[in-house]
Structure formats: structure tokens, C-alpha cells
Amino acid sequence: MQDWLWQTAADLGRGIAAGRIDPVDLCEVYLNAIDSHELTPRIYARVTHDRARAEACAASARAKAGQRRSPLDGVPVSWKDLFDTAGVGAEAGTALLAGRVPERDAEVLRVATAMGLVCLGKTHMSEIAFSGLGYNPTTATPPCVNDAQAVAGGSSSGAAASVAFGLAAAAVGSDTGGSVRVPSVWNDLVGLKTTHGRLPLEGSVPLCTAFDTVGPLCRSVEDAALMLAALEGGTAPDLQGASLQGMQFAALQTIVLDDLDATVRDGYATALDKIANAGAKIVPLEVPELTRAFEMSLPLYTADAYANWRDLVEAAPEKMFRQILTRVRGGKDVPAHEYLSHRAELQQIRAAYGRATAGFDAVLCPGAAHLPPKVQRLIDDDTYYVQENLLSLRNTRVGNLMDLASLAVPTGVPSVGVLVNTPPQTEERALRIGAAVEQVLR
């Protein structure tokens, strides 16, 4: 049964469907692993034993009656601690929300539960989701699976760690500037950033209302497809026969190749070679308009965040980690006219990006420019923290600024991933391409 901890969610679902795995037994294996693992306090903020067991029991009964609600009915997953859970704390990694217990589930959790997913508990995260590193001195800092002394990536840090360390079959996180994909890249997982608005945000603690999205962190592209279907109450796209033959990809050059760590540069280059050798044509592409989008991103993000957090922050600023406090307060002095003009200009840049990339099946770029930083140096050096935090979210932020569907796929080099970016509302295309990319990069 211990091997269940390392199977894909899809394989676990197939085992349940075939009668080889009872959801009750599966749930207990995961709960026992969580309860006995030395890293659990750094990964899980709260473990929902009673809820998980009740949901697993119901899934077991459905399986025996031949009434499973989805391919993942009975599969245990974790949830980032910014999703509301009825009767269970949801504190978004901040002392500002300590003791906050919602009365009802977030909408996306309600739908996923109706599709049969089993909720194992709530995972640690960067404070209020406003960091790509995953370092949180207020609650806990989950480790990277490839380097115990390094951060896991944020803000869905515990979500990634829960899957990477075998403490959840899949996880649900949020992505505002890269918060699903950065920890997925650094922990060799598949992470899907959905188009803004595709999955409901009701009942999730907001960071930046204009950019927040919900997405899964998984062991395979197939898992990501099945998780997306479960989260929105739909049907997963067919990934069978996915191939790169005849595909045409743009390899984005603007911004995303600057200051790459040598390991990332070489791993990404090798990944592109493998993709090309599998029959895809790769064309270097500059999109100069992205430079302006990045120039506007700081006021766009900080103004949005400050609007959502101002009252709580200013009532008790001493409760916040100073780096997050400084970042949030950066939005205090952004004039309304500047914010609105930036939003309008961003729409124009999105249109320009769409025209520049229209002839390609997807746009590729490195998942993160660098490898996960060491925790101790982030503690000791404030300048280094700011530098690494901004760099961690740089490449993924293209997907948020341009409102793309974006899939992070491991390259086979530890903590190095490739992003498959496709137009808004084309998650199915990204997943099918991602399935083909996954095959050649294994």
C-alpha cells in the first residue's frame, strides 16, 4: 500500500475503478503518512482527518455501487490555506487572519468535493500569497524536495511539498504571478495556471483580484487535466495520441532568457532540442511590448493587493513579515488614474501579444530563471530576498500579465521546468501539448 503514496492521481483513480484500491484504505495510508512524517508541520497548516475519512467512506460506497462521480472520485488531495473550508481554519499564511474559521467551503472546493475528491487538509503558503519564494517566518517554510536547505517556491509552497514528499496525490493552489508554477518547477511537478475567471474565486482569500487564478499541482499532465475537470465539474480533455509532430512553437526571447542560471539555461536548451527532435518546429520570438507590461506590473499588482489588504494591514502592521508588508504598502501611493490607465494599456499589450503569437501552437520559455534559493541566505540578506523574489516570478508572470493558460512541465533536470503558454481559455490545448512534451522529456 505504501506505493500508493507515489502513484499518480490518475492511476489511483483507475485502481479505485477496478476495485483494487478502496478509498478508505487509500485515505488511511495518506493520513498515516502525514501523521508520521517529520516534515508535516512545515507542509500542512491543518490536517482534516474527520472530513477526509467521511469523504473517503462515501467514495468507497459509491465505488462499490458503480456510481463514481469522476475519474478521481476517492483520491486524496491537499488545499492551499487560502481556500475556505467549512469549520476549519483558513488563514492564508498570515497572523492577520489568525483564528479565521469560515462557515462554508470555497466554491471550487465545493465543486471538487461533489466530484469525489477527498480533502486531506490545508497547506502552508507564502504570507497572503505575495511571494514566489515560499519563505514564511510567521507560519512555516516548506522545504524543496531537491534541496532541504532551500525554499520550495511560492506562494503554493506547501501544496507543492505535499505532493513532492508523498503526502497528497495532488494539490490545489492559486496563481497570481506564478504561485502554482514556480513551486511546481522547483519540485519537479506539473502545475497548471488557468485563465483568469475559468475557475471560481468565491471563498478564496484574495491577493490581486484582477490576476488571481486557481490551479492544480500534480505528478503528471494527465493528473492536471483530471484535476481541472474535477475543479470545474467538467470532463477532462482526451490526451491520448498527443504528439509534437508538425507542431510550431515560439521560443520567447524577450525578458525570460535574461540572467538565467547555468543549470536552467542548459536544461532548457536540452529540452528544446528534445522537443524539436520529436518533430516540432521551434522559432525564436521577440515580443517587445512585454517590456512595457513588466514596467507596469509593479503598480498593477501592489495597488490591487493594497486595496484588498489595506484595512487589516494598517490595523496591525506589526503582525506581517516585513518583506510582505513593504510589498503590500507599495500600492498605497498608486493613483487611481495611473492604475486605470495601466489596465487599459495592458489590454492593448495583450492584443499585441495575441497577434504576435497567433501563428504558433504554443509559446515556450523556462519555468524559472534560477534554482531555489537557500533559506538562510534569504533570512540574512534583505537585498538578496527582494532580488530572488522578483526573479522567481519573472518568467511565470508573462502568463498572468497576458492572461494565458500556462502549464509547467518538468524537464528531467531537478528544479528546471519549461512553460507551455497558450491563449486564454485554451487549457485543453496546453494540456494536450504538455502531454506530448512530457513524453519526450521524461
From TrEMBL:
InterPro entries: Amidase, Amidase_CS, Amidase_dom, AS_sf. PROSITE patterns: AMIDASES (PS00571). It holds the Pfam family Amidase. Residues 27-430 form the Amidase domain. One of its GO terms (molecular function) is catalytic activity. PANTHER family: AMIDASE AMID-RELATED, TRANSAMIDASE. This is Amidase. It comes from Thalassorhabdomicrobium marinisediminis.
